[in-house]
Amino acid sequence: MGFGSGKDKLTELEVDGETLKVDAAGNKVGIGTRTPGTLLQLEGAEPYLTLKNSTAENTDGGCESKIIFEDHANVTLAQIQGSHDGSSDDTKGDLIFSTHDGSSLDEALRIDSAQLATFAAAATVTTDLTVGGDIILDDGGSLKEAGGTAAITFDGSGNVTKI
What we know:
It is built from no helices and twelve strands.
């Protein structure tokens, strides 16, 4: 079969049974299966997917690997990024979730190497919230009822006011 002439096409590829299967008729690829049910299916006892950045880059946000979700117009709707956390020559990593607001792709949630989660906007919890440690309000703040009226305020100096 001659490739490159534009006349011959490889219509199916199978390597070592179930190791790799390209289903040209269904436009699907299976790794570990002969019958992939989705565009790409990994099947096995350890169906892990590894994204490895081969660049030695110890900058904050460097050595990143991403999963990018695009729409029909090639606009990134959402993204998950794993990257280096900090600027030291170490193996600390963070996980960053970004979403598109209609104008730009923006970071929505970051989980850093200290396992601290930072939200870019207010976080809404639609059920009970259980806190196993302290609730810390930087420079004061308030606890509010659902309508937004402050019920308890903290002034940052230890003074508490119940409203």
